[in-house]
Structures are given as structure tokens and as C-alpha cells.
């Protein structure tokens, strides 16, 4: 599965959806990532950018990876959580 996200809010939506697909609460994910539940909540809401090491901990706990690639010219409808 591949998800394209370019903003903190879009990243948070991918993390939240993946967490829920695992059947985990925010506390469960926080425990696996070594973070507080409140931190997971903030990341999922995309309210402020997360530190890269924090984000990598969350992604690792979810068995997701971070990739850097050349930016594509997709329409707004091809990108996660268009809001």
C-alpha cells in the first residue's frame, strides 16, 4: 500500500488510518513508539509539524517507512486527505 502525503495533516491521516487498521488505540501506538498518547493525538491531527525522529518512531511502530522521492504533478484528488 502506498500513500502520498505532503502536509502534517495528510501524514496524520495516514498514521491514524493505519493505527485503526491495526486495531490500536492512540495509547497502544504511543506505547509501541515510546511516546505519550497526547503526542500521537497531536501528530494525527496535524496541528503542528512533528520532529523527524518522533515521526520515524511512529512510522516504525506501524511498520511504515519514510521515503523521499521526486515530487509528482498529481491533481489535488490524488493526494491523501485533500482538506
From TrEMBL:
Note the PROSITE patterns from the entry.
HTH_CROC1
Q: Which InterPro entries match?
A: Cro/C1-type_HTH (IPR001387), Lambda_DNA-bd_dom_sf (IPR010982)
| Domain of life (superkingdom) | Bacteria
Q: Which GO terms describe its molecular function?
A: DNA binding
HTH cro/C1-type domain: residues covered: 15-71
Looking up Gene3D superfamilies in the UniProt record yields: lambda repressor-like DNA-binding domains
Name of the protein in its database record: HTH-type transcriptional regulator/antitoxin HipB
Q: Print the organism lineage.
A: Bacteria, Pseudomonadati, Pseudomonadota, Alphaproteobacteria, Rhodobacterales
Amino acid at each position: 500500500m502506498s500513500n502520498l502525503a505532503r502536509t502534517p495533516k495528510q501524514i496524520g491521516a495516514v498514521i491514524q488510518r493505519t493505527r485503526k487498521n491495526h486495531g490500536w488505540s492512540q495509547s497502544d501506538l504511543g506505547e509501541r513508539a515510546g511516546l505519550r498518547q497526547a503526542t500521537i493525538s497531536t501528530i494525527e491531527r496535524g496541528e503542528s509539524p512533528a520532529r523527524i525522529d518522533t515521526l520515524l518512531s511512529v512510522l516504525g511502530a506501524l511498520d511504515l517507512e519514510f521515503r523521499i522521492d521526486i515530487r509528482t504533478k498529481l491533481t489535488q484528488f490524488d493526494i491523501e486527505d485533500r482538506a
